[in-house]
Amino acid sequence: MGKYYSPSGGLPPQTHLTTERAIVTEAYTVIPKGVMTDIVTSNLPGFSNTRSWIIARPISGFATTFSQLIVEIAPGGGAPKAEFEAGVEGVVFVTKGKLNLTLDGELHQMEEGGYAYLAAGSEWGVENVSDDVVSYHWIRKAYERLEGYEAKSFVTNEKDVQPTSMPDTNDVWKTTRFTDSSDLAHDMQVNIVTFQPGGVIPFPETHVMEHGLYVLEGKAMYLLNNDWVEVEAGDFMWLRAFCPQACYAGGPGEFRYLLYKDMNRQVKLT
Q1: If DSSP codes are grouped into helix, strand and coil, which group holds residue 211?
Q2: DSSP assignment string, 76-144
Q3: How many CB atoms sit inside 10 A of residue 114's CB?
Q4: Tens digit of pLDDT for each residue in 192-217?
Q5: Confidence (pLDDT) at 107
Q6: Structural contact between residues 1 and 196, judged by C-beta atoms closer than 8 angstroms
Q7: What is the CA radius of gyration of the chain?
C-alpha cells in the first residue's frame, strides 16, 4: 500500500500553460490535480486554520446526491462542531497527517488511512493537535431513512479492513468495503478500489449509482461515457447515473481510488 495523494495548493507561475486536463460534460466531469490551487479553496463556517477544495456539490448537470470536500487543517485548527445540517451523514477519510475526531463525546485519534462513518444526527468535531497539516476527504449525503433500519457511526482504518477480490479476477481487482453492501441501514458506500497493473473493468458498467472517484495512487486509462481519459493520483472524477465506465490499469504500480456511490433505496417518483 503506497502513500495517499493529497493536494498541496500553491499557484502556477505566469509562464505556465493554461491548457489542462479538466473536462466537464453532461455525463461526467474530470477535475485534475493541477487545478487544485490556493485560489480555488473555500473557507468552512465553524472551522479555524482550515481550507477546503470542494470537488463535488449538488448542482444542475453535476452531482445530485452528495458533496465531497478535501479539507486541510493547519496545526491548532479544526472545528468543535463540524456538521451543522440536520439529517446529513458523512464519511471522513484521512490521507495525510493525524486528526483528532471527537464523535458523540468519544475521542478517536485518526492517522493516514483512517476512516469514520458519521451517522446523521451524530455530534462530531475535528482538531489538528500535531505540528504538521492534516488532510482528509469529507463526503456528505442527506440520509434517506428506511423504517426498521438505522445506520450507526464507527471509526476504523483501511489497514484493519480485509479487501475483497472481485470474482474471477485472480486478485488483480479488489474492493475494500467499510460497510456490508447488503446492510439496508446504509444508503451509500465509500469504498477503496485497488487494481494491480494489468487489471481491468472488463465491460462498460452502466448502472443507477452516481459515482465520485478520487485517485489515491497510481494512474490508469478510464472510460467515461465514450471517452478514454488518462487519470492519475490527485484527479477527481464525477459520473452521473448510467454513465458507462470501465478501467485499464497499465501500471507500473497499483491504481487505487476512493469511490462514492448511492445505493439500497427505491427510486422516488413523487
Answers
A1: strand
A2: EEEES----STTEEEEEEEEES-EEEEETTEEEEE-TTEEEEE-TT--EEEE--SSS-EEEEEEEEE--
A3: 23
A4: 999 999 999 999 999 999 999 999 99
A5: 98
A6: no
A7: 18
